[in-house]
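Standup notes, structure subgroup. Blocker cleared on the pyridoxal-5'-phosphate input:
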Amino acid sequence: VAESTATDPGSFRGLFPALTEHVHLASCSLGARSVALDESLGRMLSAMSRAPGSAAWVEFEQEIDRARARFAALIGARSEQVAVMPNASVSAFQVISTIALGTRDTIVSSVGEFPSIAQVWLAQRSRGARVLRAGGRGYDALVDHRTALVSVPLVTYDAGALQPVARVARTAHAHGCPVFVDAYQAVGVLPVDVRELDCDYLVAGTHKYLLGLPGVAFLYVRDPAAGGLEPTLTGWFGRVDPFAFDACVLDFPESARRFQTGTAAVPSIYAASAGLDLVERLDLDDVRRHVQALVETAGRLLSEQGEVVHLPEGAAGQGAHFGFTDPAPDTVGRWLAERGIAVSPRGGLVRLSFHYYNDVDDVQRLCTALRAYRARRPTTPGRAG
Ligand SMILES: Cc1ncc(COP(=O)(O)O)c(C=O)c1O
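Run returned:
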């Protein structure tokens, strides 16, 4: 992986060649392509040429363990507490499969939950679960002696609102139940520390702010062997010794590897290494200040030109993205993409997201393009269809 010593936004941006021409405001959907990403995938291909067959697998396995260790360090965890998973939904399923749903039969989620995670919780109704969604009343009103799991996103996928996870965790723990945090929209662009959040589980995929590719999610488990039940989805990489090849044995390691299933997506692991390498060199407090300033500037400028921006007062409660309303977000997205500006439409919102590689010039190019779009199409901003 290329040595990157870029610690200021300008030189960090230089590690992403496409950004000389394009404005990338879509990291909440897919991070920008870096030189390091290409190099890391090249390293995987070289391993296949140099050591064809099972020798390449030895290198792949080492790469998986290195990526696991790096992710663990990034979130203040130990390697043994991190499982390498295919995505966040499977991670959520694995977690809930280890939790008995008896007298504690309730999963408390939130209205801001990413649908795929929320749907895994809903699917537990076939096991007798009751699923509640915390909205305006918050978690305090819903968590009680019947709660089996509390689930909260660190940053909501639509509005980009930062959630008070540590406070939710205090409420959950006071009632003796564990907390699952979906940190997909936070890890890589905000400081995330599982000890400060005091969560029991945390999941994050690698293709957004972690600057890798789809195909891998990391699952942190505070106390892997403490759950009452064993995971019900499993496979050889969930065994004590995956290479024992004993089809009559179903053992589970003490570590978070017990949540793993089959073969990992190796190209995505190499991509994750490249992204982790880029991110771990950054001071994430600096990154957070940088993206918050851009969120504030973009929100103010877009409001001034008449867009209906969804942003709380001040950016303190905001992650690295926000949205503005449009009747046809996909049409706006396509129109901007044709002009070299990547944004991320979702629902009734056009989402704009920021990483350390973005700058004020990106915001200005977006504002200019959007003015041109509004001048062309006489729609009323804010009137969602
Ligand atoms: C908050 C959040 N969670 C999860 C996901 C993805 O879930 P999965 O890995 O199951 O596809 C996304 C977006 O892709 C997301 O924004």
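Discussed briefly. Residues 113 and 153 are 6 Å apart (CA to CA).
Next: hand off to the docking folks.
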